[in-house]
Every structure is written in C-alpha cells, then in structure tokens.
Amino acid sequence: MKLTDYDYDLPEALIAQQPCPQRDASRLMVLDRRTRKIHHTQFSQIGEFLPTRSLLVINNTKVLPARLIGRKLPTGGKIEVLLTRQKGTNSWEALIKPGRRVTHGTRIVFGEGALIGKVLAKSSLGLYIVRFKYDGDFEDILAEVGKVPLPPYIKREPNQTDKEEYQCVYAQEAGAIAAPTAGLHFTLDLMDKLKRDGILHATLTLHVGLGTFQPVKVENIEMHKMHSEYFELSQTSANRINAAKEAGRKIVAVGTTSVRALETVASDGSVDPYQGYTDIFIYPGYQFKAVDALVTNFHLPKSTLLMLISAFAGHEFIFEAYQEAIAQKYRFYSYGDAMLIL
User: What is the pLDDT of residues 94-115, one digit of tens each?
Assistant: First the structure.
C-alpha cells in the first residue's frame, strides 16, 4: 500500500481556524458502510443515527498547556518546548526548537523563573529529555506559564477560549498534548439526552501524543512505525463494554484514539483491562475485533488517522465521502466537523 494513495487536495479555506460557536451545532456526515449512503445532518442529531442502545466509548484525557516559550540561560535566546510525554518524576520527553540552540546541560527558564528546565539527553527520534525544577504543583505552574498546544495548521496563537474549547466536556485525566477531537462535539446536555434514550458510555484514557500525529515518511505504509502512547482501560469500563457486547449492543468508538485503545485490548470477542502503552497501527486489511461504529473528524492527507478510517470503511468509500465533504464545504481537522461511520 502506497502513501500517495492517501493524499487528497483540500482548499485551505476549509481548515477550521476557530471552534464552532456551539459544540453540537457542527455538521455531521453519516456514512452507512452497508448501503454506502451518505447523509448530512447536525451533530446535535447524532442520537437519531446511533444504533439503538449502543454504547459510546469515550476518551477522557485532558490536554495539558504543554507548549512552553522560554529563554535560554544565560544568553536569553528564545526556546520553544512542547512536552510530549512524562518520563519520570519531574522529567519529560519534549520537542525543542530551535534544536540547534540546545545541548546536554542547557538550562531554560519559563515564566519569570516559575519553571526551570535542564536538557538531560537527546533521543534518536529527535526528542529531548528535560528535567524541571519548580516550587508548588506542576499542573498549576503549567496552567500559568504554558499555552494550549494547537496544531500547526491552526494559523493563530491560542487564546483564552481555546483553554475551554480545546477540551472535551468530559475531560478529566491530564496528560495529552492534543485533544481527542471527535469528542469536542459533545455537550453535557447531549450526553444526558443520549443517556435518556438508552445510549450509555464507558470511559478510557489515552493520552494523545506523537503517535497520533507522527507523519508517515515511507512510501510503503506497512513500514511505518508508530510512536507509543499511554492508555488505561479500567476493569469497570471493560466489564461495561463486555456486558454490552454480550447483550448484542453496538460499540461506538468516539475518536480514533478510542479505536486504537479498544483494538489493542480486544481478543475473543471481549476486551481486557489494561494499563500501559500501545503502538498499534491500523491500516486497510486490519480485521476489527471490538468496534462496530465510529465517530471521527476529517483528517489530514497521508495521515495514520486517514488510514485507520479507510481500514474501517474502505478506502474508496472514505475518499468518496471526503470529496463530498469538500464539495459541501465541511470544516476540516481539529476544530472542524464530524463523521459518523456505521
């Protein structure tokens, strides 16, 4: 399978730069894999299309204000640090730019001295290990000196609105460097309405990291290696998912992160509780074991996310749907519109 098979042209004007004023007022494209029909609606109406008494599986990770702008000591040169994964007490894996300005032992100060980082090492993947020194609670300090790590295709600086809008309403467990964007469309009122209609949910935590966004650099996609991401599925959630499957209820993954977590722990028609890392790479030819339907956003060309949904719905159908979305001027990517694949 070739990387070029997953390319498409997207008008820049369709890349959403701002969140939808009302989360569930975003547009929703519904794809039926059996009939190959496409329906257009609003996300607030998703309950009309979800399978009866289905179970949503949501990712409750919370985005850290992981983008840090600091000054190199003692020269004062500007350094940007993006935290990607915690490696130990006070130590984080990070992307640093410009990388040429840092070496082993480089010290970087953030927020007038509230946080000081020291570069300990550089990995083969171009990532750095940084140890931080601070007084108080690390998350509180990050909230003070850090910025929301908006994706690079959002061509503006993050603002106060993003601190709320770039989080799912059910986000609880801090640790992600990007939102599981399919969940951004849900409101608490919508979740309550779905519950009243018999559509419940189970929760997992996958801290979205580099694995989700790492570009594919090989033409033969089967040679691509995913960066691992940490996730947890509790015994309670596993029991709820297994009970739903045994009762014949459909499992609806909210987002590709939920898909990857569930498929990592699926075996023999059930899922097992888990705490650890996954580097699962799903592309066409993969046989799904746990997921029956999927809520997702519209993804970048040549991305592993586009390959995953192509595995789920078929390459031809997905690309037909994407051309329809472009023609209908759907909004793409993180702050864009959504798709429900049945």
Answer: 999 998 888 999 999 999 899 9
Residues in the chain, how many? 342
DSSP SS3 for 182: helix
pLDDT > 90: what percent of the chain? 91
Residue-wise pLDDT tens digits, 230-285: 999 999 999 999 999 999 999 999 999 999 999 999 998 899 999 999 999 999 99
At 65, list the tokens: 């204000």
Which residues touch 232 (CB under 8 Å, ≥6 apart)? 173, 204, 205, 206, 274, 275
Domains and CATH numbers, the chain: 3-63+164-341 (3.40.1780.10), 67-145 (2.40.10.240)
What value does the mean pLDDT take over residues 58-74?
96
Decide if 231 contacts 207 (C-beta within 8 A). yes
97, β-bridge pairs = 80
Residue 332 and residue 289: Cα distance in Å, rounded?
A: 28
Average pLDDT of the chain? 95
CA distances from 165 to 42, 259, 285, 293 (A): 18, 23, 35, 25
Pick the closest to residue 68 from 84, 79, 77 (CA basis).
79
Note whether 213 and 181 are within 8 A (CB): no
